Amino acid sequence: MNFIKPSRRTVLQAGGALAASAALPRFAFADDMPPIGTWPAGSQGSSVTIGAAVPLTGTYAAQGADELKGWQLAVEHLNSGDELIRATSPKTTKGVLGKEVKIVYADSAAKPAQAVQAQGKFISDDKIVLMTGSTSSAVAVATNHFAQREHVLYFCGISGSNDTTGKDCVRYGFRQDFYGQTAAAAIGPVLIKAFGKNRKAAYMTPDYTYGHTVTKAMNDYLTSQGGWTMVTNQVSPLGAPDYSNYVTNIGNTDAEFLINVNWGHDAVLSTQQAKQFGLLNKMKLVVPYQIPFLAKELGAETTQGVYAATDFWWTLEDQNPLAKQFVEKFQAKFGYRPEWGAESAYTSIALWADGVERAGTFYPPAVIKALEAGNHNNTMVGDCYIRAADHQLVRPVIIVQGKKPSDMKNPEDYWQVLEVVPGAPLMQAPDAFGCKLGDYT
Amino acid sequence: MISWSNFLSQFFNGLASGALLALISSGLTIIYGTLGVLNLAHGAMFMLGGYAGYVAFQATGSFLIAVIVGSLFLVLFGVIFEFVIIRRFYSRPPEDQLLVTFGVGMVLVELVRWGFGSLSLTVPPPAWAMGVTPLGFMIYPTYRLVVLGIAAVALAVLYFVLYRTRLGMIVRAGIEDSTMVGMLGINVDRVFMLVFGIGAMAAGFAGIVNAPVVSLTPDMGDAILVQTFVVVVIGGVGSFPGAILGGLIAGEILSVTSMFNPAYSEVMLFAVMTLVLLLRPQGLLGLPSRE
Amino acid sequence: MFRHRRFLIEGLTALGLVAARFVLPHLNVSPETANTILVWGLFGIGFDIVFGFMGMLSFGQAAFYGTGGLVAAYLVINNIVSNLLLALILGMVVAAIVGIAVGVVALRRTGIYFAMITVAIAEMFFFIENNPLSDYTGGENGLPGVPTPSIAIGSFHYQFGTDWSLFSFTAACYFVGIVIGLRIIRSPFGAVLTAIRDNPLRARAVGHAVGRYKLAAFVIAAAYAGFAGGLLGVVQGFMPPEAFDFDTSGQLVIQTAIGGTGTLFGPMVGAAVWLFLRDFLQSAFGLGATWKLVLGLVFVVLVMFLRRGLIGGAAVLIRRTTTRPAPPAPEQSAPIEAPAIASVGPARRRQEAPFSGPVIEARGLTKAFGGIVANRDINFAVEQGELRGIIGPNGAGKSTFFKMLTCELKPTAGRIIFHGRDITGMHVDDVCQLGLTKSYQVNQLFSRLTLRENVIIAALAERRGTFKLDLLRRIDRVPGLNDQVEGTLQLVGLTARADVPVAELAYGEKRRLEIGLALASSPSLLLLDEPLAGMSPVERAETVQLLKNIRRGRTLVVVEHDMDAMFGMAERITVLHEGALLAEGTPTEIQRNGLVQEAYLGGVAAA
Fold it and tell me: pTM surpassing 0.80?
């Protein structure tokens, strides 16, 4: 089996990743922008394509579908030059650098390998210039490293783990949304302020890195700043069909707070059963990392009074004109008020478009440098900027509390915004979680 | 964490969740025992029962009607499933049976997702079973006590059907020697169809009864399916009393071990199953010949 | 099945892979997809050996896939091993070692119990990977940063890219995998696996150590899985934790079934179809989430109408259009004539010093099942060269007695001495290797093989011993095998029908093959359990002649209901009654024995 002939070697190396690009006259490119990733093949036509791998089946399907709508709206706004997207990406006229934007998507079932395979297909079939999508950090981390290897930019979707812009950060990967560290740092003071020091908390933690890091971040903060104690930590496997045993253990403690770190449907089920076992009558529920649609699935009966940290909630429309526009336009198109998965998706695309416009080219290293320039963008949650050292968006965290059913003004009016906590003070030092970004080429 | 009162609580909770597992598993084991088909769509049928009940509840607002409609729908589904598909697989290798039931399970899950979306849906418990009941050593959700009662009654009814009726006699004879039943001149086709219907009903009934405890999602059957396999294997494949014993044991393992280290409770279940298979391969109450 | 055109399939595979390298890019197939298909295909080769060829359905292959992958990824990412290929091989070795440990536990059971144990063990592996070992495995984030391979020979250095050049590497791995796989299934070892699939009981009875073969095959599958897992890490640039998922094992089973079991290529074909449909349904029809619903429906239809997967279905089609019918069964099957003294060794060569005295001796043999005593204190001896008959009314305990002699059943008390050696409590396969075997009352054949292949299986045990790991040896290179097989076929008069599948044989032919299987292992003592059962008069006469032929140089013990045949054949007859020895003597003595008459006629009179 000798597929590899030395004579082909030069062709393979110079030709870059794509057979198609090897066929193009090489002298067409400036020396300082050699072919890399899908550059220049992906942006030579009249349009560019974004690839999204997002769960449409499996336990995270609901969140995935919401994200997808956010991208679709963003792409539509880019192509029409909508004022909402131009608020975040001021240089945008129509499309990106005058090219129409298309989006292709595939079901990842929230599985890293499946997501990576789908993105690989998009890279070779569609020459995508940007990858996006994730509803769990496992997919975000995997795609991060894939992006670095393939030299194609990646804005992750929902990803709450510190690792995504921590030890698994990459030069080609960016994150818009809040994460374990900022969530804990934002909600912690609110809790201490509201309930005082030296309280007892029980934790429910899903048994994987995201869960353990969020629990640790919460506990570290509350212990050191407020003298709170962790009376039990109920670690459960992903997708447990029943939480009664965990809930029973918590019921047999004297905890005053139940801090539920579970994600996706696990969060819904565990909270629901905590309520059934009467826990929520004697403990205050705290959700440090709010799951899109949590309140809708649980009902306001359960979520009333619950404290949560989130990326976005639609009632921000009262405080932010961009949020108001977004909520209206989204609802007009899709028939419901967007959750934060859609907001995160929309903002990610806007930030990317702004980076490309400012770079004046799709050449990935140039786009990365433009995004790293510390430019401030106006978004639906206010002023934000990307931190060059770890590619994390410095952005506010929204603290919300569940409304009583009687206080709800419409069927989706589950939370009231307590506080918009500015982002910069919440962030750890850029290297605290071991981030090393890697090379541009 | 390991206090006497917590142990009592967990022991009781294990009993309650075990009873439900036993009910679902009994359907699986009856079908396997009689028809020799390991039904990988069983988890999906459990899920389907929940959704059927949900639809009925939405239409009528009556929990009782929801339970009845949900169960009957699953009987009907089981009978049709057997008639259209399973029937063609009796003479085929076991792996084909696994594949086709797996495929049908997948279709059911995605069909429900298509029809109802991925967001979870809730069925409230009947008004008289809301809230919690103090048991002395713990307070327990009233509806879960009801589920325990319902599961116990349903198992008793199944026991009666299997051990006190002619159909039951045939089913049990089939479990012991399926070729013999055919030779007795019994209309095997009809019996098999009925057995599959009963097995499906056990899953569907459990699904709707359990609906107020959990919230319904299209994928809810997956985790249950794996647990029912463990239950059936521990108790003895094809053994109805085995499914009950296995269900209770599994419930207790999941509950009691969670006191020591909650993360390990799921894996303990598999460890115990492996142990049982090695020490008593036919399962605790299984017949040695069935392998 | 055991005869193959050399290198044809290998050549076509190589051709196909090279062609794929150049054709697939033009068909809009991404290198990721092509590589993923080959990784699944490689993973599946081992699984197909265990499932398709040996008939054991494992639902736990993910444990080895994940283990091999994580070990390889860990070694190379942490710079413990710099050579990627070496890391992949080390991952494979670790997976194989894990395979031994798992196999020892899981293979104690068969069927659905085996499948369930593998599920349970795989779930435990998943847990261990995700929880206690997450510092090493990366937990749910997996291990990122697996590099692409490179080749350095002297000054020549080639670094594989992540594009189609990587396909060359995975294709090379797959090719090596398939070549080795083909060698394995074409080896004597592979032949024994198919025998175990068809009839483990008989495989053991003709002298194969079934347990050790199963373990070996299981470990081979684990090794394939381990290597494929490592390759997955290379293809994706990170080692995904989902390699350990139950879904991964499940998908492997499904893909293998779609492609076709027992083909080695099935898993690859199945993966190609599955991934193609997944991409196609989503991209071409924009189905969104409903893609899985449509795929599920397609899958159900495929399973319903294609019995042995796509490859199996295609094979059936080809056979229908091209095959000639097998030679019809002769009206009167080949007459068995007096001795064409066949070349089947009359007795074992590997015997120790010549031995005088009884060939087999039972001392105080007793067997009780619970409270029921089936055999009570039987003393019994057969001399060299004798043809001994055993008779007795129904329920006299003849079958139990026979089973104890061949060590299929362990006696409650008493000893069995074969050629002066105490064989009590030995394994059936070892006893067979000593030269003692039996033919069964109810045919125990390898039903999916041809007649010749059946005999080959039995002869292999004699040629190779209870167990031999000759994975890469061609079956036609086993010394003396062909002569032995031809000799046996001739002796039982089935040479003309040698290539007919067993399922198509007439009943009488099957009975003779049943005896042939016992003969092929060149026993010095042959026990025949009702060789004439269910035969027509003509067939009986032929079989009696056959027995007379084969007794030259052998000692025979025959249990039979047909008194006339027995009295005409045997030199001495032993009569069992109600589990105990009633009488023993020449046919004439027995016919005159009052006790015997009473035992038989008494039953009749009472009726």
Answer: yes
